[in-house]
Write a structure and sequence with these properties.
Oligomer: single chain
Number of helices: 18
Order of helices and strands: HHHHHHHHHHHHHHHHHEEH
CATH topology: Amino acid/polyamine transporter I
Helix content: 55-70%
CATH superfamily: Amino acid/polyamine transporter I
CATH architecture: Up-down Bundle
Number of strands: 2
Length: 478
């Protein structure tokens, strides 16, 4: 369960942020966008499950690329993973503090955690706390995730399982897949699919702990497959319920699970508080998985002579403490820069690249498995070869869409300096669903400017606005 909790926490928290964005662009077609992205995720999960059985060592795609293709490719895959994990730590530490600030304000009326630079400093404190937990050993850090993941599953069951039945019984759900190309434009749908891919980033986190779990050849692949199944099930059911609700505000988009919980008859207000608490905890667990992952990637790169030897040192508990300290310092420095120099928009730029590094690593993993399939070895041969090739093609298509749709848009600066001049409406679903989001009309429960959720929200939303001429609204950002 420890390896599973590391893998699920890293991926499961993504949906707390990205679900609203997917609905913003795809409206009622959000479940289809998430299903298409899930194809990439499932194929990649199968590849990692097979490779982790063959190579039960830390490093993930970095090590697979190094073994199969040499140091240069191991270096490139490693840097892609490091970018992804460091962004994960900073982004989800901010998102966690944002949810905590929302709860503090709800209980005490004080918004000090939602004000700049308090929330960024609090995220730094959370990052240091997570580093301290990890220095105590993988058992302590994985146990931290285990408790949170168990509580999250209970919350998901109450909100999606019980709540979904109550919503259906009350007649509040209006399910209909809109026509893609007319009701939802193809460019919006494809863009929503690339955002949906962010809901599944982190599939390889469980493989990073391969050298620190019992019987890794058996337990790590099983943990990866279980994490894949659980994440896809939660993402698809949540998207079906959330996209079937009525009018949605920007606050609803930024807090999709709380919005879904609030809409449940009778128990809604209580479940909304519970989902807010789980948003805080699960985002913290995701940041913790990022801390585990990036330190093991750095350790693996040092062990394969791609980084200085000092980074492969381990303490008495078997933890790569130097790699842990260096990666934590980098993530904390990003948060401090964000707190002290908000005009630099550093985290917004990085947030807009959230998927790129991960998809590069995933493509290397598929290539490594394909290469292994062709290896002449009478004792071991993985079949069939079609699965990793299909995964490689799917990742390449998704990466190309990311490059085209995210890279050609307006600068991430638009997310901060000009977003307030734009309004955004999702394409109509069935006449009643429409999403209107205006940055100058923020509800009391909105996340703070620069929180993890809003950084991803703004960087993705406004980058696409100029790409399609703000077709979501019919006008371009000024």
């Amino acid at each position: 369960f420890g390896a599973f909790s590391i893998g699920y926490a890293d991926v499961g928290a993504d949906i707390y942020i990205t679900l609203g964005l997917v609905v913003l662009y795809a409206a009622g077609a959000a479940p289809l966008a998430l299903a298409l992205a899930a194809v990439v995720y499932v194929l990649t999960g199968l590849t990692y499950a097979k490779l982790s059985r063959v190579y039960p060592v830390a490093g993930g795609a970095q090590y697979y690329a190094y073994v199969r293709f040499g140091p240069l490719h191991g270096f490139l895959a490693g840097w892609g993973l490091m970018l992804d994990y460091i962004v994960d730590v900073a982004l989800f530490a901010l998102a966690s503090v944002g949810y905590l600030g929302f709860l503090v304000k709800l209980v005490t009326g004080s918004s000090f955690l939602l004000e700049n630079p308090n929330y960024a400093f609090a995220a730094c404190v959370l990052t240091v706390f997570l580093i301290g937990i990890n220095l105590l050993g993988i058992k302590v850090s994985s146990r931290f995730n285990e408790y949170i993941v168990a509580a999250d599953f209970l919350t998901i069951f109450l909100v999606i399982g019980v709540g979904g039945l109550l919503l259906a019984a009350s007649g509040s759900l209006r399910l209909r897949l809109p026509a893609i190309g007319s009701e939802v434009s193809m460019s919006n749908f494809l863009y929503a699919t690339t955002i949906a891919m962010a809901s599944y980033v982190g599939v390889e986190a469980a493989s990073q702990a391969a050298e620190e779990v019992r019987n890794p050849e058996k337990n790590v692949p099983k943990a990866i497959l279980l994490a894949v199944a659980a994440t896809v099930l939660v993402a698809l059911t949540a998207s079906i319920l959330f996209s079937s609700l009525g009018n949605l505000s920007e606050e609803d988009i930024q807090h999709p699970f709380s919005t879904l919980a609030k809409s449940i008859p009778v128990f809604g207000p209580y479940l909304a508080i519970l989902t807010g608490l789980m948003g805080f905890l699960l985002n913290a667990a995701s940041a913790n998985s990022g801390v585990i992952g990036v330190s093991r990637v750095i350790f693996s790169m040092s062990r394969t002579n791609l980084l200085p030897k000092a980074l492969q040192r381990v303490n008495s508990r078997g933890v790569p403490d130097v790699a842990l300290a260096v990666s934590g310092a980098v993530a904390a420095s990003l948060l401090l820069t964000h707190a002290l120099l908000p005009s630099a928009h550093l985290l917004e730029v990085i947030a807009s690249l959230y998927n790129f590094g991960a998809l590069i690593a995933y493509m290397y993993a598929h290539l490594a498995l394909t290469s292994l399939n062709w290896k002449t070895n009478p004792h071991f041969r993985i079949k069939p070869v079609l699965q990793p090739i299909a995964g490689l093609v799917a990742c390449a298509v998704m990466w190309s869409l990311l490059f085209i749709l995210h890279g050609a848009g307006c600068s991430p600066l638009c997310g901060s300096s000009r977003a307030s001049q734009c309004s955004y409406s999702a394409p109509e679903n069935h006449g009643s669903q429409q999403v209107e989001a205006k940055n100058d009309e923020r509800g009391a429960g909105s996340l703070p400017h620069g929180s993890g959720a809003e950084l991803l929200f703004k960087s993705m939303r406004c980058r696409h606005a100029n790409t399609v001429g703000c077709e979501v609204t019919g006008r371009a950002c000024s």
